[in-house]
Amino acid sequence: MNTITTRTAQPTQDGAGVKIRRINDANGQLDPFLMVDELKSNVKDDYIGGFPPHPHRGFETLTYLLHGGLRHRDSEGHQGGVGSGGAQWMRAGRGVVHSEMPTTDSNGLHGFQVWINLPARLKMSDPTYRDLQGEDIPEMSFAGGSARLIADQWVFNGETGQGALDTLGDGAGMADLRIDAGATVQVVLPAGYRLQAYIYEGQVRTADGQSHGDGTLVLLPQTGDTVALDAVEAAGLLLLAGRPLGEPIAYGGPFVMNTPAEIQQAIRDYQSGRMGTL
């Protein structure tokens, strides 16, 4: 990828009627990421049904909340809950059944769920879960803005910080970046990493002179160098960075493997109870 491209989030529903905006791709355009969902509503009926028990195999999920609360349960016995500013990370690996349900005391919900692909050698690894409370996620300030570091190491305007999670997938990161109006933030990337920026508030200008607004995922060239983001107005961005896996992607609803045959096996394993029950 040598040019800046964009994707626009599309309104849809998932779980028990939860209204979301979604960007996904089965052709590797987002590699190593698979999907970005934004959940945002102050209307309880839009989200209170949550995501009842359902299976996954072959990837990781990370749910990050700006506002609201979610509780997690899964077939491996993991349980947890987070509120505003918190995150829930799960490696589905060889297969797990889980649920994510909004807490009834949350007044509105605004957050994101991101799917992170796993390489073939990790797709059948053991399921794992960890939740991060808001206070567990490091925050850093620098000239022109601030960031909450969810996973991996980040460098903004010469300042370096480490996320709450060492990494995602097989080497990927996530950060919640805020840029002051009129300011520029320089993001330094490791060699071979590609940066993607989902804009959830304000407007941002990229190096090609184009401005991008709310609900846009900007896919920047793979440079392993420095990427400049200019805030036309005060902006909030969910940053995703990682080294593309470059492996075949086979989608089968809640399963992501490398071949159609592996998807069919995942379906059989789920139907036979091999992924557990909840």
UniProtKB/TrEMBL annotation:
Domain Pirin N-terminal: 27-116
List of residues binding Fe cation: 54, 56, 98, 100
Residue ranges occupied by any Pirin C-terminal domain in the UniProt entry: 175-276
Keywords: Iron, Metal-binding
Protein name: Nuclease PIN
Superkingdom of this protein's organism: Bacteria
Natural source organism: Halothiobacillus diazotrophicus
GO-annotated molecular function: metal ion binding
Cofactor: Fe cation
Family: Belongs to the pirin family.
Cofactor annotation comment: Binds 1 Fe cation per subunit.
